[in-house]
Amino acid sequence: MALFARIIDERAPRHSMPKFLFTCLLNRALRKAGCACIGMALYNFFFTQYKGALLRNIPVVNVEHPLDKEIPFLPQKVSVYLDFVAFWIRTASFLNRAYPDRKDFAADFIVSIGKLYKTAAEVYAACFSTTKRPRYLGTFRFALIHAFDPHLMCIPSLHVMLVIRTYTAFAGIIRTLGDGETYARQAAEVRRHALAITESVLYVKQHSVNCVAAAMYAMTRFDPPLFTEKDAEAFVADLFTDNTLPPAVADCVRRHIFSLYQRFLAQGAPSTDWTAPLLAFLEERISQQD
Question: Which of 113, 260, 267, 289 is deepest in the core (most CB within 10 A)?
Fold first, then answer.
């Protein structure tokens, strides 16, 4: 996220994320949005997950795919992986600075982030999903992940949902306000970092390729105009293009993610319940593992 941070700093050198958080406390609209977001995240992700882990009243299924083994474990990507919250907060901060008289846009964006937690929990409440993580405690960050993340909410990946929402909402807002060209560089940088975080969830083995496809499907159902099938195809096409993965492996990963996304989309189209394809996928995995 360094480059996006530099762009923001160039345009607002006295601005900082702590200053934005302080601004949220002082502004009623932003304060209300922030409290709503935090409340939805705490209840739908943390409370639901820890409660399920303790009571063991929700089925748990492994959702790995053979392609996951082709993606190397890269511990150095953990800083990118853990940047997902600061990423959307920085983006909200930029919107607040760029449009000081239109705090409703930043506030609505913040609320929508919270709604993602509530939306994803519709799947989590019915079935937990997990993957096998390396027993790696080589850094303090990984120690924190293993200590505080029960790793039971993989499908759909909230990491991927949040970063997709961040870049699509940012682009949508500046377009609505007539500044699509003015802030085109910032929009491109936000999207690039969304791609980097999406890749990182696989490099640090917190998710499977199946989780990425599920998250993309969830975002198309969450806000169809902002993340169409065409947008999803373009997003997948830009994953793993830096040659970290062998080209043949990268191509297989991209094809699988988009193919599974299309499968979910086709299965979900006739239903008013967006969770149906994901729950069917999880039930299928449970039957295979019995």
Answer: 113
Phi, psi of 8 (to 5 degrees): -65, -45
Residue 128 β-bridge partners: 60
CA-wise closest residue to 281 among 215, 219, 183? 215
Domain containing 18 equals 2-289
Cα separation of 17 and 20, whole Å?
5
Reported as a single tens digit per residue, the pLDDT across 232-248 is 999 999 999 999 999 99
Of 257, 259, 282, 278, the residue nearest 268 (C-alpha): 278
Report the C-alpha gap between 244 and 251 in whole angstroms: 12
Could you give the number of structural domains in the chain? 1
Structure tokens at 180: 């699509």
| Separation of alpha carbons 64 and 75, rounded Å | 19
Name which of 24, 50, 23, 20 is nearest 35 in CA terms.
Answer: 24
Calculate the CA dihedral of residues 270, 276, 282, 288 and round it to 10 degrees. -50
